[in-house]
Amino acid sequence: MAGNFSFDQLKKAVSSGEIDTVLACIVDLQGRLAGKRFLAQYFVDSAHDETHGCNYLLAADIDMEPVPGYKAASWSKGYGDFVMKPDLATLRRIPWLEKTALVICDVLDHHTHDDLPHSPRAILKKQVKRLTERGYIGYFASELEFYLFNETYDSARKKHWQGLDTASPYIGDYQIGITTKEEGVMRRLRNEMEAAGIPIENSKGEWGPGQEEINVRYAEALDMADRHVILKNGAKEIAESEGKAISFMSKYNYGLAGNSSHIHNSLWSADGKTPLFFDKKADWTLSALGQQWAAGQLKYAKEFTWFLAPYINSYKRFQAGTFAPTKIMWSEDNRTAGFRLCGEGTKGIRMECRIGGADLNPYLAFAALIAAGLAGIDEKLELQKPFVGDAYQASRLPEIPKTLRDATETLAKSKMLKQALGEDVLEHYVHTAKWEQFEYDRRITDWELHRGFERY
């Protein structure tokens, strides 16, 4: 749990006037930062111990609408408080905001001060604890893709999100010349994230006009999830300060590539020195443990797809021939696969899950992948042979759920996730998924109006 700023350093910076604001943030169901801006001196004096927030924040949809039907929080229960407990190990300076530091908070029960089981960070901490108990460290890295626009969020709204001006007029995948035009935002993003204790390896153009990919250095699962949410929040703030807008929507335009969040994952020894997936004598140099881990993720992929694709729009990304997967299988270095083996023959060998979109909540996604991997180890599953060829054209491979409705049904039936996460936690997120579907089903879309206003 590594920030880049100790509490003692914060106190000195507050005393000298270098820091005057501290953001105390939880992570909501959507993977967004929510919380309070503290006068820094007050945070140092007392709020560093704990503060409070309304428990509807983990029972609301993306529009901040209090959703009926949750057991954990409701109007009938009065929407009381929960405790926001700053994890001071996550404290960091935020270079793109003046005189500001940020800390991630755990969400605790107001009465018992135990982790609130359905909070995203608690869900991941529980799965990390399961790894620790077995002597494992889970290293994760998420690649984030997004579109950069020569628009502000205000101008995009006024255009009704149609005909938007992308930062580059055509696809510049890996092209240095075209992405130089985008450096005003991207250079700041790389350097200021690094200064905030989020090490950036590189950025590049992606397979869409104005589409970018940024790669964060791998870390232990909880650290990586913290980095992921701060990066997303900060990227939007940096872009807005430059008069630009960023979208992490999975599929903002039917005719263009979607935004993914590929997740690399592997297990190492407790001291972080020995890669437990590397065995130069094993098939594909993937150890027996690594093969069981991967087999578990393949077996349960349909059941945890919602944790990788939580919205209606998420499923629009799964289109053949777009570098987004449509099938549940694994392959050696094959970008048509749902799961890809990377780093074969090296200590960096790992599985890359390519199913997730940039709209996922990393705490939930990482937790689901860990739970499935551990299930594969416990069940001693055998890893199938790798697929070779174009997975888009292979008709007999199992498919990723095609819609949110399909994914919700498989999520609700998952015995593995019920056992790993807890029945109440699983029910909480099944309810979240059903509400998203309900909200969509009762809305009138532009497509319906275009298709039927005159012709029906």
TrEMBL record:
The keyword Transport does not apply. Residues 120-456 form the GS catalytic domain. Pfam families: Gln-synt_C. Keywords: ATP-binding, Ligase, Nitrogen fixation, Nucleotide-binding. Residues 17-115 form the GS beta-grasp domain. It comes from the Bacteria. Its cofactor is Mg(2+). The keyword Nucleotide-binding applies. One of its GO terms (molecular function) is ATP binding. GO terms for biological process: biogenic amine catabolic process; biogenic amine metabolic process; glutamine biosynthetic process. Belongs to the glutamine synthetase family. Catalyzes the ATP-dependent biosynthesis of glutamine from glutamate and ammonia. This is L-glutamine synthetase. It comes from Rhizobium loti. The lineage of its organism: Bacteria, Pseudomonadati, Pseudomonadota, Alphaproteobacteria, Hyphomicrobiales.
